[in-house]
Request: fold
Amino acid sequence: MTLSKFFCWGRDFTANIDALLRDTGVPRVDPSDESLSSGERAHARIVAVLVDEWDALDSRQQRALVNVLKTSARASEDAENYSTRRFADGVQE
Reply:
């Protein structure tokens, strides 16, 4: 677990990605666990890298990744919602 500290104007800007992930309910599991699905394994690997490397990035690098991930997640959600609606409507192709 890494901890980076930045003090500005008497305020402690402490960013601890491990704590932030835990506080928001993001599971932290061993990526080598054989019982994980492919999605769970990918998630576990990404979380492990975030915990190990996030604090090495500057804020612009972090923001660029966040923006790309938000855009990608939005596209995935749109595709899933479209598929769900099509299935609910009984449309088959």
